[in-house]
Amino acid sequence: MLRSECLSLTRSPSNRWEEFEEQVRIYEKPLYHFAYRLTGDINDAQDLLQEAFLKAYRSYHRFQPGTAFDRWMFQIIYRLFIDNYRKKRRRPFISSLDEPHPHLEQAKTADVPDYSNLPEDSALRQELGRTIQEALMLIPENFRVAVILCDIQGLSYEEISQVLGCSLGTVRSRIHRGRRLLRELLQPYFREERRRKE
Amino acid sequence: MNCHRVQKLLSSYLDQELSAEERREIRKHLFACAPCSRLCDELTLIKDSLEGLEPPAIGGDFLRKVHLYREGRLLQETFLWGKRLAMAAVWILLFLLTSFLLFPNSSGPELAKKEEQLPDYGARERTTLQQEAKEESTRLFLPRLPGIPVSR
Ligand SMILES: [Zn+2]
What we know:
heterodimer; A: Arc Repressor Mutant, subunit A; 72% helix; elongated; B: 6 helices
């Protein structure tokens, strides 16, 4: 029996609860961010996270102390999202660069914010955030989750492959294809930005 | 390395997930190839924009469902103990009832028997007092004279 397994068996229920609460307190912010970028909706993200914490608490005896709680939670959140929340999605994904994406084409006519060097102004940052989130929601979930884990959560390819349970090659491909789709979707903004700077 | 190969590896290049040799080759290619270099810039912009995204403000209790679950479990346990206690009480009551029905008069005659067996401590005291009273009355009728012993 592994040492970590022994440790998990000797944890009393009250210790277990305190430990769990502590882990939640430490990681709730990045986990909430992850859930939000995945669902694209504050309420869905809160609901998803509540559900994920419940699932995690009920199987916390299987969590090995000393391993990364957030990585474990990413797994739970993503699986729950795939099982329950993606059914609620309203817009179809684009899986090819040739497909039109009217949603962002419409938004293009709005005032183009200056965000090439990550704007200081909080209103502009919010605008950029909304635009990127809309683009994220238009790409397939398996690309989206890989890009979010890499760029927003800062995980390595190796860690992402563990969270998603797929090969390094698959992670590499999903991140790349996800970014290229995002580039296509956001190109009107970037083009406008370049034109303004010149 | 040709353009196709470089463009396929660009994301991994940006994420520093390539070998030193691959990185060197891509750097060399980007220096000489404008389209690949432009794609690299655009992907960098995407990556930077995603990295710069701010997390939403924490709102609400994320452990709400866990609290409800724990309260439910606690209530369930309390209910279970209540149920166990009630069952125990019912069993004791049944046992008493059965034993009473099987031996309905067992307690009456046994008590009477015990009363019979008890010694009458009062009887002995009564005879002693009677005897003393008798002696006293005898003594009162005999005059106390010096030199003459009182005989019974
Ligand atoms: Zn090239």
